[in-house]
Amino acid sequence: MIFKSPFPDIQIPEVDIPQFIFTSNRFVANLDAPALIDAVTGRSVSFNSLRETSYKFARGLVGTLGIGKGDVIAVMSSNNLDYSSVLFGSLLAGACVTTINPSYVSEEVLFQLQDSKASVFIMDETCLKSSKDALSGISPDRMFVLSDNTVEGVSSFRCLLSDTEVALPSFTAEELSCSPAYLAYSSGTTGQSKGVILTHRNIIANVLQIHETLVVARTGADEVWLGLLPFFHVYALTTSLHSAVYEGIPIIVMASFDFALLLKTIQTYKVSTVHIVPPIALALAYHPAVDMFDLSSVKYITSAASPLSKDIIEALINRLHTYVIQGYGLTETSPAISLGTASMTIRDSHGYFLSNIEARVIDTETGKELGVGEQGELCVRGPNVMKGYFNNHEATAASIDSDGYFHTGDVAIVHESGEFTVMNRIKELIKYMGIQVAPAELEEKLLQYPKIADAAVIGRPDELSGEVPVAYVVLKPGVTCTEDEIKSFIAKNVASHKLLRGGVVFIEKIPRAPTGKCLRRILQQQDLEYMAKAEE
Fold first, then answer.
1. Are 267 and 396 in contact (CB under 8 A)?
2. Angle between the 278-286 and 259-269 helix axes, to the nearest 10 degrees?
3. Mean pLDDT by 10 residues, the chain (536 residues)
4. Which residues are paired to 121 by β-bridges?
5. Crossing angle of helices 439-446/483-491, nearest 10°?
């Protein structure tokens, strides 16, 4: 059975992302209005300035560096006012952008730079200092810092801004559908991140799909969105940054999460729409500090990355008198597959499939198509589904079937109302705060520690963050080792979202199949028993 969206199909224009955004009626109507506002300083960039800087940056990339189609530009930065100009300017120059998590350590940065074949690296000052060991493969004259001035010998990106007219590339319809606009890296069960090819058409489709669903949720001329979630992640990249600029809506930019600043920002700027993840939703629902601020401007809260419980949703509604909308998606789907609406009948569902999306639910063992009310793996097809994994045909073939359906690895159920709910995941990936963590990567690190003979990592459910990684470790004979010792070793070698927040459990043997594959289901059951005993 094929499930379809209740929303009408939309036409997707054959244009590139910057042209799509910069010529939208809402963008043009708000040229002199602020597009991006720094939450701390109040400094702003107008829609017109955003467009002009993007074109100047593109001209510099083409005229000075010779950037064009096929080139990849890496951007590593926390949220700031210049982020979008660098993205759109790079796309105007014909390049593809790979966004790098600013919390990555040098080894992780180096892998993404090499795998994506990036030839230009743009970073903020903090990332410049933290990723020095990864810069050997990038020519010094192709490294730039998101600052007004040169930092530690690295030129400001502003030195590329050019008023000299140069021919900027145009794209054929085939290029818009096939060539990467963004390479967004998604953790794989093998431990190595995979570059997800998101095309101009993918991103434009998803912006329009979101618009079609939320058009009834517009709060009027005073609409203001919060830019708290990290722009490097496709959730914020599409649903916050691209969508807000396309809609002509100002976005309040926060460089990092600070709950007190979040509350103050909402009150000061009268934020109307908040895109968040469940841990922040939990804080908004129950933290006593909320009562010290006026959050009455908030009309819509959109949460994604992991499910919100019905209790938290109801607590948010009762406390803030706002609509709470859940979304669902993956990096491979640009990311949104569904969004809730104010008319949902199942409050904690993930809403309805977006326009132009078709879905199947299949039996996880036989592949048989299932119907309404039956649980199985969710598979989706639509214009927002990635082109594939970068230079990884095997992984692409394993994820997208011959009918064009992307297999999400998530178990879901479609209800009679057309809404659906994601129940759990088939894949082994851990989701901490909505960011994927590959157990195999952490296991590889653990086995590098001289005292460890074997190790396995699983996700432990956590109310605040969705899941936290916990390591089960077998020590080598005759050695002693503490939990803190292992956690400290891991902390020095991975990004912060991969830390062993669930702790370390020492056991005699990791359960494995005859092939050597870790039997994670057995380990997860053991972990449930371990936690139950710990609570006694």
1. no
2. 80
3. 95 98 95 98 99 99 98 98 99 99 92 96 93 87 96 96 97 97 80 90 98 69 92 96 96 96 98 91 93 96 84 92 92 96 79 97 93 96 98 96 96 94 80 85 90 92 90 94 97 94 94 71 88 80
4. 74, 143
5. 110
pLDDT value, residue 347: 75
Supply the Cα-derived Rg of the chain in whole angstroms: 23
Spatial separation of the C-alpha atoms in residues 449 and 473, rounded to whole Å: 11
In degrees, rounded to 5, the angle at the alpha carbon of residue 481 between the alpha carbons of residues 483 and 534 is 40
In this structure, which amino acid lies at residue 62?
Answer: V
In the chain, where the domains are located: 430-535
Question: Phi and psi of 113, rounded to 5°?
Answer: -60, -45
Q: Which amino acid is at 215?
A: V
Residue 357 vs residues 206, 249, 352, 484: alpha-carbon distances, Å:
10, 26, 10, 47
Q: Are 430 and 456 spatial neighbours (Cβ–Cβ below 8 Å)?
A: no
CA 41 – CA 17 distance, rounded (Å): 29
Residues forming a β-bridge with 359: 3, 380
- Scanning the structure block, which residue is given the tokens 């969206």? 5
pTM over 0.70: yes
> How many of the other CB atoms lie within 10 Å of CB of 213?
24
CATH of domain 430-535: 3.30.300.30
Question: Helices marked H in 425-478 — which ranges?
Answer: 439-446
What does DSSP say about strands 406-414 and 420-425: parallel, antiparallel, or unpaired? antiparallel
Question: In whole angstroms, what is the distance from residue 467 CA to residue 277 CA?
Answer: 13
Predicted pLDDT at 217: 53
Sequence-ordered list of residues with C-beta below 8 angstroms from that of 361, at least 6 positions apart, any chain? 1, 3, 369, 370, 371, 374, 375, 376, 377, 378, 379, 412, 413, 414
**Interior angle at CA 40, CA 37 and CA 41, nearest 5:** 70
- Order across the sheet with 251-253: list the strands: 44-46, 34-38, 251-253, 225-227, 273-276, 300-303, 323-329, 336-339, 352-353
CA distances from 315 to 310, 318, 320, 329, 351 (A): 9, 5, 8, 24, 19
What confidence score (pLDDT) does residue 391 get? 96
